[in-house]
Amino acid sequence: MNCYIYFKASANKEAEVLQQERLLQKLMLQADQQSPGLQRRPAEQDGMHTWMEIYYQVSSDFEQRLELAYAQTGLKQLQSGERHMEYFVDVDLCA
């Protein structure tokens, strides 16, 4: 199961978001031993960028570990509104 988390942040705070995302990913890499992905929509809308964190093959205690790591970053102060978390599973089309 993969976890996708998206949030918005002011486009003029891109450098700060990237800095805090690097810290979050470093902390999650230490906890999970795998590197999460990060994406951003190509264009800003109303002065905001939409960011997407991608965590692959998450375990049952993923959310707890993520909360601990997230609390050690400054992302909460940079984001606008809520973080949205969604899970998706792979589908075997050959079955």
Which ranges are low-confidence, i.e. pLDDT below 50, for 5 or more consecutive residues? Answer: none
CATH architecture: 2-Layer Sandwich
Overall tally of domains: 1
Total helices: the number is 3
CATH topology group: Alpha-Beta Plaits
Strand order of the largest sheet: 2-3-1-4
- Main β sheet profile: 4 strands, antiparallel
Percent of residues in β-strands = 25-35%
> Radius of gyration in whole Å, from Cα?
14 Å
Mean pLDDT across every amino acid position: 94
| Total strand segments | 4
The coarse silhouette is globular
Oligomeric organization of the protein chains: single chain
Helix content: 25-40%
In sequence order, what are the helices and strands, one letter per element? EHEEHHE
InterPro entries: DUF4936 (IPR032556)
Pfam families: DUF4936
Protein name: DUF4936 family protein
